[in-house]
Design the sequence.
């Protein structure tokens, strides 16, 4: 045995040693990797299409365990695209960023904000582009923002900030109040949701055709929950709905219209 | 005439087969050697990077600004740690041969395993000190920024006057701010650097030059990060034949999996880490160190200089 050990080239013994250790550690490492990915400590490998879009240096960085550094650099690059209103480049940068760090809700929120709010606003005012093209791109960016927000929510199911941004796109850009109400409804039960979410459900249901009665019941319930809910907008919306449904005076809330001098009726 | 009788003198005292104090002495001398090579100067580069990132004003919210500072600084810590582990370890043995220090050391009752262990421990001590300093600087920076952002949110209002939305914003800032668990992220970087150093020591016992050791170690490190990605790619893009599978298995068992040591990224992003995971990763790091030291000894034990 000793003679065999002395006669064998050392590199052969080293390779055998490495292989034996590899066979022992591989099952443990595979288990450990699954465990770490499940507990969000380890990021899954970037998607195939993200790898194809990465520059060579970004790919090397990713391989070198520098995903967070590469994504931070790409966020800087994307900020440059935002400053120069290069929306297509910004979209490409964020496709890589969100693939590298799918669990960072800030990236999803930012891309939804950039495309859904900034790019659409730019399309509303940029007169260097023909009007039909501006309208087309406005819709494209707004719908893309919605799609990205949904992907982000899939990756971060408890995220409030992505939902807040998505609701803003529905509310301000697509004027889809039914969808905005649905997103605020989702927000209500999430930990760390804004206090206004429940009121906003009512406000946007009131603007959603066919769901006004639901809005009235919801807002009324909130009104009777406590004085902290007696906000001007809430009272105003209830008054509008009372008028719309011709509610009996005895059943109406006691407050007058808050937005008119002396609380006069509209 | 009587022949003169020669009697062998026994040594003044027993020389133990293995001595921790000899390893410690070698580790401290390696530390001194690395300090004289002005290795700690890279901490200035880290401080400058941290200051630059801390003062960029591109984030859409204070929470995101804090998250970026954290990610960049911990990413840089990780990068400095593994890069340092490779370069310092690759330089040490050739430097000792060049300076002829190695002959002086090995002519004394010092085992070769003690020499290798001393070198590794010296490198690990320097990495440990560097990571601790970087962590303290980084923690100070994050806390300073966090307090500044919270003060901006609060403004002149008293705690009783704070609205629910301001409280939510403060909570979000705190969520992205400093947490003691970040120390575990620094520990994760240390574990990764330790494994990288042990792989580099093994390579340097074979290699004929530092440059070769550095290049091959960096390659092994990069390939070791692409374990899962490469395996998935090959299985998806090839015919998945027995040859491919055998090659993949060989690749998996020979190259260390560095990707699983990158769990500091998750901690920095706020994921909770179970103590059992730390112990398991610590155990795996220990196993890598023991095995790679023994394999290094295998080639170093009867190497002629």
Sequence:
């Amino acid at each position: 045995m000793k003679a065999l050990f002395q006669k064998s080239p050392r590199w052969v013994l080293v390779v055998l040693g490495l292989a034996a250790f590899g066979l022992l550690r591989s099952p443990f490492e595979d288990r450990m990797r699954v465990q770490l990915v499940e507990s969000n400590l380890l990021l899954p490998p970037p998607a195939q299409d993200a790898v194809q879009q990465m520059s060579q240096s970004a790919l090397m960085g990713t391989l070198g365990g520098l995903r967070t550094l590469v994504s931070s650099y790409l966020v800087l690059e994307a900020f440059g695209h935002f400053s120069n209103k290069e929306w297509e480049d910004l979209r490409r940068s964020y496709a890589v960023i969100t693939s590298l760090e799918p669990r960072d809700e800030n990236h999803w929120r930012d891309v939804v904000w950039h495309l859904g709010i900034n790019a659409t606003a730019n399309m509303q005012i940029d007169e260097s582009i023909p009007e039909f093209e501006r309208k087309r791109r406005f819709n494209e960016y707004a719908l893309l923002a919605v799609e990205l927000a949904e992907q982000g929510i899939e990756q971060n199911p408890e995220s409030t900030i992505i939902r807040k941004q998505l609701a803003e796109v529905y509310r301000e850009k697509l004027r889809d109040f039914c969808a905005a109400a649905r997103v605020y409804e989702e927000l209500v039960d999430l930990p760390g949701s804004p206090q206004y979410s429940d009121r906003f459900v009512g406000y946007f249901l009131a603007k959603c055709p066919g769901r006004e009665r639901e809005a009235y019941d919801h807002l009324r319930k909130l009104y009777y929950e406590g004085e902290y809910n007696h906000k001007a907008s809430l009272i105003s919306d209830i008054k509008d709905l009372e008028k719309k449904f011709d509610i009996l005076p005895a059943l109406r809330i006691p407050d007058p219209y808050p937005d008119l001098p002396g609380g006069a009726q509209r | 005439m009587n022949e003169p009788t020669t009697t062998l003198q026994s040594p003044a005292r027993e020389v133990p087969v293995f001595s921790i104090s000899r390893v410690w002495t070698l580790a401290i001398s390696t530390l001194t050697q690395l300090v004289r090579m002005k290795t700690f100067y890279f901490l200035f580069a880290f401080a400058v990077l941290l200051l630059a990132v801390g003062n960029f004003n591109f984030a859409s919210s204070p929470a995101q600004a804090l998250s970026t500072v954290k990610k960049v600084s911990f990413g840089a810590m990780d990068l400095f740690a593994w890069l340092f582990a490779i370069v310092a370890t690759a330089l040490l043995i050739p430097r000792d041969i060049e300076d002829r220090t190695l002959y002086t050391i090995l002519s004394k009752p010092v085992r070769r395993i003690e020499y290798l262990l001393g070198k590794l421990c010296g490198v690990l001590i320097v990495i440990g000190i560097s990571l601790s300093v970087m962590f303290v600087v980084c923690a100070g920076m994050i806390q300073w920024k966090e307090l500044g952002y919270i003060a901006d949110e609060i403004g002149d209002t008293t705690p009783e006057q704070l609205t629910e939305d301001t409280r939510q914003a403060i909570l979000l800032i705190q969520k992205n701010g400093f947490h003691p668990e970040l120390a575990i992220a620094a520990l994760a970087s240390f574990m990764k650097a330790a494994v990288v150093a042990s792989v580099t020591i093994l390579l340097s016992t074979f290699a004929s030059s530092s440059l070769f050791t550095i290049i091959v170690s960096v390659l092994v490190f990069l390939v070791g990060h692409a374990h899962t990605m490469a395996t998935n790619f090959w299985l998806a893009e090839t015919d998945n034949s027995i040859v491919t599978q055998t090659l993949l298995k060989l690749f998996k068992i020979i190259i260390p999996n560095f990707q699983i040591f990158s769990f500091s990224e998750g901690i920095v992003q706020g994921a909770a880490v179970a103590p059992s995971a730390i112990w398991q990763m610590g155990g795996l790091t220990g196993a890598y160190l023991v095995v790679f030291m023994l394999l290094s000894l295998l080639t170093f034990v009867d190497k002629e200089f």
Observations:
- The longest helix of chain A spans residues 10-38.
- The mean pLDDT of chain A is 87.
- The CA atoms of residues 23 and 222 of chain A lie 63 Å apart.
